[in-house]
Structures are given as structure tokens and as C-alpha cells.
Amino acid sequence: MTATVGQQAQAAARANDVWKVYGSGEAQVIALRGVSAEFERGRFTAIMGPSGSGKSTLMHCLAGLDSVTRGTVQIGETTVTGLGDAGLTKLRRDKVGFIFQQFNLLPTLTAKENILLPLSIAGRKPDPAWYDTVINTVGLRDRLDHRPAQLSGGQQQRVACARALVSRPEVIFADEPTGNLDSRSGAEVLGFLRNSVREHGQTIVMVTHDPTAAAYADRVVFLADGEIVSELIEPTAETVLDTMKKLDTPAEVGN
Amino acid sequence: MFRATLKSLLARKVRLILSGLAVVLGVMFVSGAFVLTDTLGRSFDSVFADGFSEIDVNVAAKPKVELNEMEGEQTSAPLPAALVDRVKQVPGVASATGIVNADGARVIGSNGKVVSSFGPPQLGENWTGESDLLQLREGRAPQAEDEIVINKSLATTAKVQVGQKVGVLTAFESKKRDFTLVGILGYSGDRDSIGGVNEVFFTTPVAQRLMLGQPDTFSSITVSAADGVSDEKLRDDVARTLGADFDVKTGEQVAADASASLKEGLSFFNKILLGFAAVALLVGTFLILNTFSIIVAQRTRELALMRAIGASGRQIIGSVVLEAIAVGLIASVLGLAAGIGVGALLAFLFGKLAGGLTLAGIGVPAAAVIGSFGVGLVITVVAALLPALRASRIPPIAAMQDVATPDRPLTKITVTGSVVTGIGAVLLFLGLSGNADGQTLPTILGGVLFAFIGVALLTPLISRPVVSLLGAIFSWSVPGKLGRLNSGRNPRRTAITAAALMVGIALVTGVTVILDSAKGSISALAQDTIKAELVIAGVQGGPRPPSFDPGVLDQAKALPGVQLVDGEYGDMARVDGESTWVAASSDVASLRQIFGAKATAGDIDRLGPTQMLASSDTATSRGWSVGSTVNVQLTRGEARTYTVSGIYESSQLTNPVTLPPAAAKDFAIPQPIQGFIQLAPGARVADVQPQVEALLADSPEVSVADRDAFIEQQTSSLDGLLTMIQILLALAIIIAVLGIINTLALSVLERTRELGLLRAIGLRRGQTMGMITVEAVVISVFGALLGVAVGTGLGAAVVEALKDEGITDLILPWGQMGLFLGLAAIIGVVAAVLPAIRAARINVLGAIAHD
Ligand SMILES: Nc1ncnc2c1ncn2[C@@H]1O[C@H](COP(=O)(O)OP(=O)(O)OP(=O)(O)O)[C@@H](O)[C@H]1O
Ligand SMILES: [Mg+2]
């Protein structure tokens, strides 16, 4: 099945018939089986699915972190598939932001330095107004000089969000950004991500396990066994949970 | 990016300190060598400038045999006394004084032993009065034949006072002669000696007879210029009057020349020190490479995160290299400073040893600064390059995966290692077999370097079976087993750490194998060939070999129970224009019997006054045969022509050329330096030895020993050399120990979580420490094993190559090798102390929460 919602705007990221095969022979695992999907500009998309269904793999392929076995991936105008290291580096600098589940920050740098790191790596100056906006939105102004070890998990993730936002990438990929957080800090981070989509038109693609987290998104794409099997627009925690249950049952039977 | 690098550098300062320390030690060696030789060089300059400060122009005869610093002290020929009057006639000369000044005046101290200077000359001179430089401190000038004056430091060392009888050996008399000490002198600036030189002043006729061997001669003439005449003009005028047979120089020139020849020796010394510094730095390179590799491995996720947010591969390389530059810079500065300290300390010790050399101020020559920074920076950056390259290849996706970087296969490194080892072996073969087109030494050194790097690359492969075998010894306890597993878990890391230790131990083992084999071969040869039961010889302390009264030879011959006596003289001569060591024998027939020499041509049992013998090797290389005529210029006298009358078979113990006994009077040392005594059948060593000893009462420089003791004494200089090399190589081993500490410390840090877990499930503190110690011991013993193996291989190769030079027996120092392995185990325990304490102190809760 192909997700084809949102033809109106141009896609920020797009997967065309993407296959990903790990290993060979006995140990072969097909993580993605011909996934095609579009992620529209200015929208917050969640990717869900049972463990091992290929969520992280899809995200890594979309972000150019991993190569695809077959098919193509595009970010904005750029075709990611086939880019060399220099091209991928440039892509990550200019078009993509990341938020990971853990180990998001360099422990030796302060929060502020972490936030500005992508810009300083690229040798760019931050736009002061945008920087202020980002800092205000994350609400960490008084913690900017602290090191990651001096921040709570939620605060650390917010710093990671700010870092992803500050360079205004085409799309931000987040892999279970709230996986390590309690529900209150998780809500803070998710709310913040949603705001950046609503207020600043940021594009975000987020992998998550948590139906509540998925409910913050504009749209949810469901993966099972390396294929897109379903999708929800304007989801709520309940509709997500329902869909998940439906997906789980045949899978268990299949096993 | 720059900032991120610096920050991460600061955060990991402890880890970098140890690897930096390796560079500091290596650089210290480099700058220390330069500072030491520079300081000594300038000290010599000022000593000689002082010593010749009173001389405007100096006249000396051209030396008959010109020698360089390596071949020995040069002796200039004496000048006729009448020349002084000729010099006085030259317009512009205010005064001209004949000077006797020759090495070989040896004072016998109150303990009956000869006072040695350990290097500086022991001058015997004629008294020409006090001067600005030289004043009597006590007593008066020598006036009678049996009166002398000596300098203060000599009097202090010999423990003699004015008024006492003092025994002196002189250049032409190695039999003690008693003098009355009538005065003690000192030098301007309240100094007791100039550069540790011992001086004995006689009356002029006595000095001429005993120091020059001829009356009415002088060593040199000191000329002072009349007012208004420049030294240079006077020099030219005197030179023109005297003709080309003489060296006429200004005082300044003499000082500069004397200093220059000593400095030639110093620069050789400097090169040796730099060679050892190179070894230390090679080991340091391994250590730095390892540290950076580990740091990069530990920062994998951090570096991957940087890549994920847009850092390019080049920026990652840049950040690692930047770190290396910072470490290299700091280490160079510290190493330079430490080297200045060490150089100053060594110069001070040297000054003390050389009898109070007044040191010039410690200076830092440009070479020390350039060398330190060049070497420190280059080594660090080169060593960091590989890890940097590896860092740049970390894929961004590694930031999201928890898996440690999988163990890369060892195929590539093993193939490279085999190729590099092969290149090393080929170079060694070429160098040792003499097929290196005159580049023998560089080829051999290159071969050794390649062999080391090659073996280091092969080490990961070797480490697997060896480490698990070694570790099996400890596997009876749980901590031991864990330690063993830990040491095998990262073969590359273990390998490089062990390889660093290997280099030092391999060099020590190799040198020991070579020197022991040389010593054993020469001893065996001496045991086989020397048929003298007793040998008269002394232990050489300075540049001049000990000698004795030739009268002893005849007296010994007359002793009951003595059958044959042969006295040996030696000199560095010019033979057909080439510097050649020539010997003279008091009795060639005895020489032949005592050494069982075989004639390959002619007659070697007698020698007429114009005949000479040659060894077969020398005869072949010079194209001589019986009947050839050969031109020989000895240290003294005119050149003479000798006819080759016999050729003997060469061995390690034969002299290239043997001259008749009469030639010895023109040798630099006209006394015998060794005497061989063969007893009559039935005579007992214990009976004869004391009688010979009694004959030597007035020749205190030498003693009589039985053959075994003599051989031991003669080869003991090799032991001294070995000890010195071992001390210098110890630095490389110390650096390797730092490497082990560093690797362990980094591993402990890396395994914080795991250690916490082990502690949480009940591993006691002591057990934790035991585990780390076992890991260290396994690594260091592995390194030592490798070193002993590689060293034995290198040593055996060199010994094989030296077969033709007479090193025929390969002697493996099993005792020493065992010692190295034992030492390595101790090194392991010592290296483990700090990391083990650190591991034992890990806070269990904190470690598990550690991210
Ligand atoms: N490097 C790899 N080598 C081999 N197989 C892999 C690798 N990475 C992932 N896989 C396999 O690919 C499949 C998809 O993995 P993926 O990590 O994308 O799952 P996921 O949906 O993110 O699961 P989770 O919710 O547990 O994170 C799994 O079966 C996994 O075992
Ligand atoms: Mg996942």
C-alpha cells in the first residue's frame, strides 16, 4: 500500500519503492519491502509499528544515514540515493536535523554550545532572531550554560530539539525522542515539536511506540513487516491504539 | 568545531597526559642531548681559550702521524732547542720560550695507585715561571732534578703535601721515579685545575728527558709579540722565517683547533644519544597511536553524532589532528624544559667526573628547540593520523546504534605486516651481507625499523593464541579468568601495547646476544691461542693505555720457572700512507710460540732491524708478499722502510703489522702495554705470580694476572658497554610501561559500566584489582616474549653476518632472557597499580547509571 495523502504541497521527503535487505543467505533479513511514502512540508508525521517492523530502518534510509538496497529516496529537491559522502554531509548540514532517543548531546559542551554545534560545524552564523525564538520556545534560557550531565532527561531532549531546529532544516527526523522520558517530560517535548510545526512550518518525521505521542502528529503511518499497512490523519490516542491492535493480531497469528 | 575539539580535549586531559608523557620523555632525550653537548662544547671552548690565553703565537712541529679524535691522541714531534733562538731573531718578537708539554705524567697517590684523570690529559711540563694564569699557591718553583710542582686539584686527589716524596710515571719512564713535591699551583679565578687537566712541572732538562725522550728539545715555542705588533702579523713573520715544516698559529687558533677536535668527539656522542632518543620516540609513537585509537573508539558515538549533524569526514580528521597538535605542542614544551634540566644535570655530573671542568652557562641551542618541536609535533601528528582516518570513516548511523564497533578482521593488517616484515628482512639481509652499496648502516637500521613495524602489525594475529596460552596460567581464579578474557578481547589494543614493550626488549636482547657472542667468541679464541699462563696488563681508565717498565721483561725472563716472555708495544702509525695499528714485540720467537702463530709465508721466528711481519689479511688487502718494502711513519722519528720478512695467519688476536723491538722507542708510548709469560713445564702459577708481582712494584699502572683473569679483564669493557646500552634503552622500556598503564586506564574507563555490574554481582575490590593486574601481566609478558624472540632473531642475524670478523659462537643469554620475562611480569604488576585502584574505586550505582 502506498501513502498518498497531501498531494497539494510538495513533499519534504519521499521514498519510492524502497527495499532494504540486511545480510545474505541464511542470515538475510528484509527490513523494508518496497515502501513508498511522501512526507509533506510543514506537517508532523509519526511512524508506528510493532518492534522490528522496520521503523528505524525506514527513517535511517530517508535521512541518508543508511543506503537503500533498491528504490530511491528524496529530500526536497535532492535525490539522496547515490550521493557520495560529500553530498550526504552537505545534505545533513543543510537539509536534515536529527533527534535521537539517547546520546543526543556532546557531554563536554554546554547546552548552548550543543545547540549551535551544527551551525558552527557548517561555519554558519545563527540568525539571532530565530535563535531567540528557538530558545524561548524550548524555555531553557537559564540553563544554557549547563552541561548535559547537569540537565534532566527532558531538558536534554529539549536541547536536542533546539539543536535540530536552529538550522531550519527541510525536515527533522526523530527516533523515539520521548522513549527515555517520563510522561510529563515527554509531553513537554512533544508539545514543543508540534508547536514548531504549527507556528514555524517545520517538517518533522517521528518514529514512536507510544500512541499518546503519535496523537501529537498530524498523520500516522503504520509499518508492519517492512511494509506500510495503514495510515491515520488527525489521529487521537484511541484511534492509534485501535489500529495498532488490529496490526498486532495477524502478526501474532502469522508467527 | 575548533571549540568542540578543544573542549573535548580538556575533558579527556587525564587520558592524554600519559600519552603526552611518552612524547615528553622522548623529546627530553633529544633536547637533553643537544643541551649537554652544547654546554660541554662551550665549556671546552672557554677552557682552551683560558689555557692558551697567554700565548700570542705558538710554534710546533707538524705531527708525524695525523690522527682524528677516534684514532687516539695526537702527539706532535719535538722541536730542537736551537729553534728558540731562531724565533727570537724574528723582528716583532718580544720573547720566545721553549715549552715541554706532553701527555703521560702520572702521579702516584699516597695510596700507591696511579691517579687517573678519566679523560683529560695528564701533562708533564717544564717550569717557565708564574704568569697571569698560573700562580704558586704553596711552596716554590722546582730547581733541582728531583723537584716538581703540581696543580692543586691533582694534589688534593693524590692526597700529597708540599715536602713529601711523590712517585711519578712519565712518558718515557713507566718505572716509578721519586720526586720531592716543592710547590702546589693554582689558576686565576681561584681554580684548582683547568678542565680537569692534571699538570706536573719539572725543571726543563728533566722534563725534556722524561716527557720528550731527548735532551735539548721542546714540544712547542711560545712567542709573545712586541708592543704594536699584531698576533696575526707576528704569526706570518715567524712562519715565513721558519719555513713549511712547522705549525705556526696564534693562541686563539690553537685554542679553537684543540676545542674543535674535542667537539668532533662530542658530536659523535650527540649522535649516539639521538639514536637512543629515536628508539624512545619510536616506542612513544606506538603509545600515542594506541591512545588516539582508543579515544577514537570510545568517542565513536560522539563522532557519529557530529557526522549526523553535518560534520564532514575532513572536519573529523581535522579535529583529531588538532588534538594531536595540541598534545604534541604541550609535550614538546615540557620535554624541552625537562631536557634542559637533564642536560644541565648531566653536564654538571660530567664536569665533576672530569675533575672539575668549569661549566659555561647552560645554553639552549637552536637545534634543541627546533629538534624538540619538530620531533614532538611530527611524531604526535603522524601517530594520530591513522586513528584520525579511522574516525572519519565512522558512519553517522553509529550514533544511533548501541553496538560497539565490531572487531574488524585482521586480514588486511596481517598481510601488510607480512609485507613490511619481509621488506625489513630483505633490508637486513642486504645490509648484513654487505650488499648495500656502501649504505650498510642506514640499510641495517632501516631493516630493523621495518622489522619492528612489521612485527608490530603481525602482533594482533600472534596475540590471540599466545595471550590465551599465557592467560591460561591465571585461569584458575575468576578474576584471573576475567583478566585473561579482557586482554584477549581487543587484539589490536593488546598488540600495540605489547609491541611498544617489544621494541625496547628486542633491542636490549639483540645487543646482549651480539655482545655476549662477541665476548664468548673472543674468550674462546683467547683460551685456545694464548699459551701464556701469566699476563701483565692494566685496566685502561683514560685515553692512554697503561704501560710498564720494559726492564720488567728481562727480569721476569730470569725468574726460575719462566720459559718465555713477550712484551707488546703498540702505536697508531702511517703505513704506506694509511693509518694502521702497528705492534712491536720484544721477542718475536716467544710471541709465535705463546700465540701459536702459523706462518703462511716467510719466517716469523726472527725479525731483523729493518724487517717486519704482517698478518695474512693485511698482506692480502695491501698487496704485500715476502720481500715487499713498506714505508712506516711512527709517532716519532723519521719515516723508515721495512721489508716484509714473514706473514702470519690472521685471527681476532693478531696485530696487522709487527715491527722489531727497536722501533718501539718511536712509538707514542715507548713502553710495553702488555706482557705475556709462559712458564716452564712443571712450574706453578702460584709460585711465579708473586715474584712477577714484586717486579711490578714500581709499575703501579699494571698488574699480573693469570690467563683467565686477563681474558675476563680484557673482555670486561664489553660488559661496561652493554650496561650503558641497557641503561639508555631503559627509557624506551619506561615509555612502554607508560603505554601499558595508559591502555589499562583507558580500558577501565571504557568498562566502567561493566566493572560496576561485576561489583554489583559480588566481585570484591581485591578481585577487581586482581583482574586488572592479570590483564597487565599478560600484556607485558607477551610483549617481553615477543621482544626476546625478535631480539634473538636480530642478534643471531648480526652474529651470523659477523662470522668472518671472528664472532663464531652464537651465545644466547638465557639467564638475561629469563630475567627480562620476570621483569616484564613485575612491570605488569607495577603498571596495573593505578588503573586497578581506579577500577576498585568505581562506584557501583554510578557505574550502572553511567551512560
Ligand atoms: N544492522 C542490521 N543488520 C541486520 N539486521 C538488521 C540490522 N538493523 C536492523 N535489522 C533488522 O531489520 C528489521 C527492522 O529493524 P528496525 O530497527 O528498523 O526495527 P524497528 O521497527 O525500529 O524496531 P524497534 O521498535 O524495536 O526499534 C529487524 O528485523 C532487525 O532485526
Ligand atoms: Mg527502532
From TrEMBL, chain A:
- PROSITE patterns of this UniProt entry? ABC_TRANSPORTER_2
Gene3D superfamilies for the chain: P-loop containing nucleotide triphosphate hydrolases
Q: Which residues form the ABC transporter domain?
A: 13-250
Give the top-rank taxon of the lineage listed in the UniProt record for this protein.
Bacteria
Instruction: Cite a GO CC annotation.
Output: plasma membrane
* Keywords noted in UniProt: ATP-binding, Nucleotide-binding, Transport
Which Pfam family, any one, appears in the UniProt record? ABC_tran
GO molecular function terms listed in the Swiss-Prot or TrEMBL record: ATP binding; ATP hydrolysis activity; transmembrane transporter activity
Q: Which PANTHER family match?
A: ABC TRANSPORTER RELATED, IMPORT ATP-BINDING PROTEIN
* Name of the protein in its database record: Putative ABC transport system ATP-binding protein
Please tell me the species this chain comes from: Micromonospora jinlongensis
What lineage is on file? Bacteria, Bacillati, Actinomycetota, Actinomycetes, Micromonosporales
